[in-house]
Amino acid sequence: MTNLLYQVSKYLIIILMAFYTLQSYTVFRKKDDESRQYLFLRQNMLMFFIHFVGYALIYLQLGEFEVILFYGAQVLYFVLTLVLFRIFYPLASRLLVNNMCMLLCIGFIMIGRLDYDECRKQFVIAVAATVIAFLIPVIIRKLRFITKMYYIYTLLGIGMLGLVAVAARTTYGAKLSISIGGFTFQPSEFVKIIYVFAIAGLLTHARDFRRLAVATALAAAHVLILVVSKDLGSAVIFFMTYLVMLFIATKNPFYTLAGLLAGGAGGVGAYFLFSHVRVRVQAWQDPFADYQQTGYQTAQALFSIAAGGWFGTGLFQGSPTAIPIVEQDMMFAAIAEELGSVFGICLILVCMSCFIMFINIGMQLTNRYYRLVAVGLGTTYGVQVFLTIGGTIKLIPLTGVTLPLVSYGGSSVLSTIIMFSIVQGLYMLRNDEEVSREEKEAARIAEERRQLYGPYGYPPQNTGYYGPNGTAPQNTGYYGPNGTAPQNTGYYGPNGTAPQNASYYGPGDTFGTTQQHTKKDSAKSRSSFFGRKKKKKT
């Protein structure tokens, strides 16, 4: 019976995830707010169903009442996050909030399945990060002076990476983390954000080639320090982020091409300079050549993905723990094994939805600095997702980076939630710009109407058609000031009668004569209508 529940649950989770992913892209076609709100609500319900099914299976496996309490704490966290964001930031992107919660939900399920104690730590860090995230949009919208501190960001980023290169402990051949007071964190995760703000400021003010060269040199300093620290995964992220931001700032493909060539040359140099880089490249080329040593992690990940197939083995029905460091570097392999490749594809599409939103928000911002920040953060997120999934499926060599919001890692979760919150602040800035543009357009239209029609909505006196009382002015040539024809029309006099020189009507509306000095009956005698009368002889 229990095995049947596991089998049914995996199909249910896949179906719910597929519907959620479909909603993430359907929202772009919705035009009215009411339809979008119903769609976001459906996404929330689907997420809570997936979360419930996942933790029901974890409870069946562990059988501890603490799992129910932990599940309730997570539900409360998701509800408060969704509701409070909507209350305090009604202009925030609901899609980004939903996707962030969905990715965290998947992470809590998989980490709870792999290592329950690590999941509790991850949850505490996520709660603390979300509390910080609620303050960031206010800072972005109110404190505009942060756009002018780019040199401070540059020095701070280089300083933190330099500290890592000197004082960090070595993990799997690379200097990554620093321990302070019992807490271990990776400074490079936070420097990614600082780096984007620094490069955005440098490129915003790079009006000539000299300043552009300075920006490039400072960006290269970050990357070189990471290379010296042998943190090549972060080095690739920093490098690709700079190239994309450089192209957006200059719109010059030559710079991007030159950067790609330089990056390729740097990769070749790293292969010959660093032994652990050669090991990873060799393991990528043929992981089964040294299956027991260098190729073991990659080979086990491939075995897991193959064992899961399209629909997975079900939670707790596979063996993802056989993969070394699975909860950090190889989380996608664990997901593909137990939840299936269909679920894995949906997960990739949800991550792509976040990336599209990041870039879309950035490209619609009119402020050059904020546009570069949004695009830079979006590129950082997208490249990191590509590196971790690409390394897992053997598309590229392993780089040792985590899957944002899904893999275990306190520093990664904290920095990614902050990143999402910064983009939310920029999204609200974009909405502020739209409101400002609408107000300016309304003011422009009102001013045009005032110039055309006057302050009371009537046409002004200089239109040439109607005067201030709605009648035609005297110079129209048709009607006088009282609605009658002027005296010089040749047809009607000032009182509506024919003028005296008319050839048809006299001043008394009677049949007129050609000239007043003729005799009384001369007109009739010469009229074409009455014929000619004989004159009496005297």
Secondary structure layout plus pairing:
Layout: H1 2-26, H2 33-62, H3 65-88, H4 94-114, H5 116-133, H6 136-142, H7 150-167, E1 169-171, E2 174-180, E3 183-185, H8 187-204, H9 209-228, H10 232-250, H11 253-273, H12 275-285, H13 296-308, H14 331-338, H15 341-364, H16 368-392, H17 410-453, H18 522-526
Antiparallel strand pairs: 1-2, 2-3
Helix pairs in contact: 1-2, 1-15, 2-3, 2-4, 3-4, 3-5, 4-5, 4-15, 5-17, 6-17, 7-8, 7-9, 8-9, 8-10, 8-16, 8-17, 9-10, 10-11, 10-16, 11-12, 13-14, 14-15, 15-16, 15-17, 16-17
Question: How does this model look, in words?
Answer:
The chain is an all-alpha fold. It has helices at 2-26, 33-62, 65-88, 94-114, 116-133, 136-142, 150-167, 187-204, 209-228, 232-250, 253-273, 275-285, 296-308, 331-338, 341-364, 368-392, 410-453, 522-526, and strands spanning 169-171, 174-180, 183-185. Strands 1-2-3 form a 3-stranded antiparallel β-sheet. A hairpin with a 2-residue loop joins strand 1 (169-171) and strand 2. Helix 4 runs antiparallel to helix 5 (116-133), helix 7 runs parallel beside helix 9 and helix 10 packs antiparallel against helix 11. The radius of gyration is 39 Å and the shape is globular. Mean pLDDT is 81; it is low at 501-538.
